[in-house]
Design a protein that fits this description.
By secondary structure, the protein is mostly beta strands. It contains four helices and 34 strands. The chain is globular, with a radius of gyration of 21 Å.
């Protein structure tokens, strides 16, 4: 039985108090500095160093909010900007040197979306047409381009399924747009086993998140449901490689083993769980060892994918094609993080470390019986759901922050350059006091702000809470 995390609403009902450190002699402390109510639900946040402003999306409305943060870390809402004349909802925001971009989804989600470029005052500078359902966007580090992941999810009736694509907007060339379809030009008639992207048509590829290499020459596009990353050349826009992200086998000792399918059959894995990684968020950074990428492996099934769709086995959601006599059933999402090299070779996987850290909280009396009883509600699905991810440097140390959406917690890792690996420093629920609601219930969007990047005199982690509609400002320090 896998130890699963708790549902955030149970935290609200019971009230707990902890900021838990696990697995490290020196952990990281996240302390709530301030919090403001912005809307009923907030989702994605970006921070612009030149204007010292955060901008966040208001979920299920075509608006963004502009937030100023003072030297004490106190946020204040300066304005809300509406894009109701452009579309139904803003899915993402991005910023670079005073230029902001909002990815706006139209009322008919299968129709092309729009990216609106604007300044911190809300003045619109340009509008660019992109692919259906623009889900995430990011600027290159040099600010010359904006990339948009167009997820292309089918309509509710399943009668229209737009292709998954990436739109590349060349800002220096008058905002010229080039859209690349992802998937195979000549897909096989038989659907790929475990959603292999090389065997799938663009309609069955769903890009979710993008990270850009430090030199702005490469983009890495996560296709979550497909368990894949597409590597793009940005100098001559094209697909370089399709990387299948493999699986993780993990058990009670936290050991992880990468598995590959052999003739459609998994290697035996007694007393272990095999899982597709299926990341949502991805980050990249340069090291003396070369480019490194880290993924937050949330997991996400797509029911209509036939043999690669979802099936329940003993109450657990598994990949239908894995539920065979000779196969080990495979679940969606490995519920941890993975460190990859620049060729998408796994270097480290956290396996069940995060869920074990939460189990330790229970064993040491920091989580009540009532809360742990809620664990089974997520056991058959995707557990804690590591989703959002951010990175930054403090005192020469590379930290990776991971939002655990269903646990209402944030995990912190450190990249060890000598070992070329990650070290788990802490798993923390921030600012919870007995009888009070947790400061953060569902961390959906994260943004790290280092020293000298804002008016605040300490490093910040900005967090959007999808359920509470708040923006939280956390200080980051070593214990």
């Amino acid at each position: 039985m896998i130890t699963k995390p708790f549902a955030p609403r149970m935290l609200i009902a019971c009230g707990v108090s902890f900021c838990a450190l696990f697995a490290s002699a020196q952990g990281v402390v996240l302390e709530k500095v301030a919090q403001i109510q912005v809307a009923k639900a907030t989702e994605i946040v970006c921070y612009d160093h030149s204007t010292q402003r955060a901008v966040l999306t208001i979920k299920e409305t075509p608006e963004v909010a502009v937030i100023a943060i003072d030297e004490n870390g106190e946020p204040s809402i300066e304005r809300r900007i509406s894009f109701a004349d452009v579309g139904e909802v803003v899915n993402s925001v991005a910023a670079h040197e005073g230029l902001f971009a909002a990815a706006v989804e139209p009322r008919e989600s299968t129709e092309p979306g729009t990216v609106v470029f604007f300044d911190v005052h809300g003045n619109r500078l340009h509008e660019s047409r992109v692919g259906p359902m623009p889900d995430m966007e990011t600027f290159t580090h040099d600010g010359s381009m904006l990339l948009v992941a167009n997820e292309g999810v089918p309509n509710d009736a399943g009668t229209i399924d737009p292709p998954g694509s990436v739109s590349i907007i060349d800002i220096n060339a008058g905002y010229a747009v080039r859209t690349l379809l992802l998937g195979s030009d000549h897909p096989s008639k038989r659907q790929g086993w475990f959603t292999m992207p090389g065997n799938l048509a663009p309609e069955m590829v769903e890009p979710e998140y993008i990270t850009i290499s430090p030199d702005s020459t490469r983009a890495y596009v996560v296709c979550q449901e497909n368990n894949a990353v597409f590597e793009l050349d940005l100098l001559d826009p094209r697909i370089i490689e399709r990387h299948w992200l493999g699986m993780v086998e993990w058990g009670s000792n936290g050991a992880s083993i990468d598995l590959d399918p052999e003739d459609g059959v998994l290697k035996p894995a007694s007393n272990f769980v095999s899982s597709l990684r299926q990341p949502d968020g991805i980050i990249s950074f340069g090291t003396s060892n070369g480019l490194r990428l880290v993924t937050a492996n949330e997991g996400d099934p797509r029911d209509e994918w036939g043999d690669d769709g979802m099936k329940k086995q003993s109450g657990v959601q598994v990949v239908q094609s894995s539920d065979q006599p000779r196969n080990t059933p495979v679940i969606f999402g490995s519920r941890g993080v993975t460190l990859f090299d620049g060729h998408l070779k796994p270097l480290y996987d956290s396996a069940d470390t995060l869920e074990q850290s939460i189990a330790l909280l229970y064993k040491t009396g920091r989580i009540s019986d009532e809360i742990m009883e809620a664990i089974d509600k997520r056991s058959g699905k995707r557990g804690i759901e590591p989703e959002s991810i951010a990175t930054g440097m403090i005192d020469g140390r590379r930290l990776v922050f991971v939002g655990l959406e269903r646990a209402g917690m944030i995990a912190v890792f450190e990249y060890d350059e000598e070992r070329d690996s990650l070290t788990h420093l802490s798993t923390c629920s921030v600012g919870v006091m007995p009888g009070q609601e947790p400061a953060i219930v569902s961390p959906e969007g994260l943004a790290f702000v280092g020293l000298n990047s804002s008016a605040a005199e300490f490093p910040l982690l900005i967090v959007c809470d999808e359920l509470h509609g708040t923006l939280s400002i956390l200080s980051v320090s070593f214990d």
